[in-house]
Amino acid sequence: MKLQQLRYIWEVNRHDLNISATALSLYTSQPGISKQIRLLEEELGVEIFTRNGKHLSKVTSVGKDILKIAGEILNKVDGIKGLSQDYKSPTEGRLSMATTHTQARYTLPSVIKEFVPHYPKVSLSVIQGTTKENLEGTVNGDFNFVIITEDFEISKALVVMPCFNYSTAVVVLKDHPLAKLAEVCLADIAAYPLVTHVFGHGFNTLGSTTLGQAFNREDLEPKIALLAGNADVIKSYVRADLGVGVLADLAYDPIEDSDLVVIKVPALDESYLCSIGIRKGSYIPGYMHEFIEGFSPHLTRDVVTEVMSLTSPAAQKKYFKDIEIPDYKFNHRTNVIME
To answer: For the segment 236-293, what is each residue's pLDDT rounded down to a tens digit?
Structure first.
């Protein structure tokens, strides 16, 4: 068994069993990959993939178990490489993170601005995608970590650490009728078109979301004018007086958005958690520890190292049970998250 063979089966699975695409990504030949997979299967005495003619059709039951172990081995190998690189050149390397538009636009710039002067030789990349894409990419090793802002079952292949709490903001123009009410209820909002985010990962209908459930509890039917992929689009439509905006409060800046006002809606006054997810067993270089602590000050090197060593999601969650997670607050002079 060769490490290269494990890399081939892992990458083939990542590329939806497309050997041609895998060969292109690894800068090698399609026949070479096919041959090495066959040799590995012959050595093990089992099929990792079933075939339809010359094409791979699906992963076998035992193949799934083999791929899981192969991924863990490759992750450890990458960890050894990372450790040696960190030892030789502690201020050089690669740091990639997957996140949503809101985090990339509002919470990360100040952290990156502080980080870059200290680590100019670290290749830094921020990739925006859907939560599903971000999670899958992190599990597959494409990203060093993922910033998670949706509440759903997270892969056991990730170690998840809470960063800060945020909440929902309902925004309207200053002269909007809702801005003149002393108290706003959902029935008041239901009278106007809503502009909000696209449904999150795993959600097929508005009723499956927290916002939809709030309306369902009061037997109300919201009027959806627009589902947008990011907060800037939502605010643009609110400015055009095309609806009431519902977005994360961290996307509202009282200075930049001074033409808009946030109205308090008790029925939507819930707290949500922003977390960082790191692939289990990953090596974390010093500069990545620095970035994480800059983003979330309570996630020090010692804390992250200890949590990464815990064996189960339950133990990881329990670790933070007695740690106070800060609420998100924006400091407009320094553009940073304050505790």
So the answer is: 999 999 999 999 898 998 889 999 999 999 888 888 899 999 998 888 999 999 999 9
Quick one: tokens of 112? 């990156």
- Strand residue runs (E) in 217-338: 223-228, 244-248, 260-263, 271-279, 330-331, 336-337
Q: How many residues does the chain have?
A: 339
**Average pLDDT along the chain:** 87
CA distance 168 to 211: 9
CA 296, CA 111: separation in Å to the nearest integer?
10
CA dist 254 → 72, 133, 167, 219 (Å) = 46, 32, 16, 33
Taking only the tens place, the pLDDT of each residue in 25-42 is 888 999 999 999 999 999
Give the β-pairing of 158-173 and 244-248: antiparallel
Quick one: CA dihedral 177, 179, 183, 184, positive or negative?
positive
Spatial neighbors of 302 by CB under 8 A, at least 6 apart, are: none
Q: Does residue 231 contact residue 251 with C-beta atoms inside 8 Å? A: yes
Beta carbons of 193 and 225 less than 8 angstroms apart: yes
Give kind and range of the element (H or E) at residue 66: helix 61-88
Helix (H, G, I), strand (E, B) or coil at 132: helix
